[in-house]
Amino acid sequence: MIKIKVSEIFTSFQGEGPYIGTPATFLRLYGCNLNCPWCDTDISTYEILSVDEVFEILMTQMEFNNIRILVITGGEPTLQMEELKRLIKEIPDEIKIQIETNGSIFEYVPEIDYVISPKEDKETVFKNYYKYDNVFFKFVICSQEDIDEVIYLKDKYNYDKTIWLQGEFSKDGEMADLIRENFPHLENVKLSVQTHKYLNQR
């Protein structure tokens, strides 16, 4: 029986990225292959559940709350991608599935949307995914160097789709100012603010 390490399942608002403000049910998976210094996600505990058990919990929450978006997040959910593929096959077609990933493990499933936030070897991650229509990029901005890298990638790969820029939360306002100062050099970018944190939501 296929098992999934699940940190939590909950329903809230999507607080960032292209679906910001949209009610969604979140499946947070255990484990990550990176150790980002600003990471504020507690994934220290988990339950081991079967695919059927996860499916039942998700459907119960989503039907009760009239939710049509499932966000698979972590940690790094692609660490359990083979298990997730089995789960995704069970999800009804009318439910939009979004996976939040750092993109370091190349996995592409055409039936779902990807929100990729590259953390290491950003150009390789970008190059692997940028041609797909169902992929959105979100970059965490901690310095001018991070913005320069976004400009470089957009120019080198002639990328004209929207990119989301999110200031590192502890200096969110400062980074928003920095992004604004770079408007002359940025095209098709949007500011991603972690609104769920300001609203004390999960």
Structure, explained:
With 202 residues, this protein is an alpha/beta fold. It has one domain (3-198): Aldolase class I (TIM Barrel). The chain has 6 helices and 9 strands. It has helices spanning 51-65, 81-90, 122-129, 144-156, 172-181, 195-198; strands spanning 3-13, 23-29, 47-50, 69-73, 96-101, 113-116, 135-141, 163-167, 189-191. The chain has a 9-stranded mixed beta sheet with strand order 3-1-2-4-5-6-7-8-9. Helix 1 (51-65) packs across helix 2 (81-90). It is globular, with a radius of gyration of 17 Å. The chain starts with a strand and ends with a helix.
**CATH level 1 class label:** Alpha Beta
Mean pLDDT: 89
- The separation of the N and C termini measures 31 Å
Spans of at least 5 consecutive residues with low confidence: 195-199
How much helix, percentage-wise, in residues? 25-40%
Query: Structural class from helices and strands?
Result: alpha/beta
Total domain modules:
1
Describe the strand arrangement of the main beta sheet, using strand numbers: 3-1-2-4-5-6-7-8-9
Number of strands: 9
Family: Belongs to the radical SAM superfamily. 7-carboxy-7-deazaguanine synthase family.
Function: Catalyzes the complex heterocyclic radical-mediated conversion of 6-carboxy-5,6,7,8-tetrahydropterin (CPH4) to 7-carboxy-7-deazaguanine (CDG), a step common to the biosynthetic pathways of all 7-deazapurine-containing compounds.
Enzyme class: lyase
Binding site for substrate: 13-15, 28, 73
